Fold:
Amino acid sequence: MQDLTAGYAAPEEIMDPEWNDSQPIYRQLRGRVVAMILDGLIKEGDALPSVRSVAVETRVNPLTVLKAYQQLVDEQLVEKRRGLGMFVSSGARRLLLQAERERFLKEQWPEINATIQRLGLTPADLLGAAKPRGER
Structure:
């Protein structure tokens, strides 16, 4: 008998039920799926867990999950397959990497760079701090 869960990410792997008040829950759900795609935990062609299973696992309204998934569809990162569910689109990771790199360089890097300059850190300081603890 074929394993019906093969190729599906488990809801508990995607959705940690801890929420913060900094942004709407649907945006946090979207962010978690995006992070898992970027980390390679969900690959192109993989199915996302059903809206219902994520809603139950995270104790949120199914419409909230659907809104997060729909945003991913609108961004062409996920595609709906009638009667089958939602699947990570081909090229989704590449699109995400490009967008996330641009966002990092535009929004986060200037602040990080200013801190580096303010503290007088050198490239050697930064590289030394980036090494795993056992290698220092």
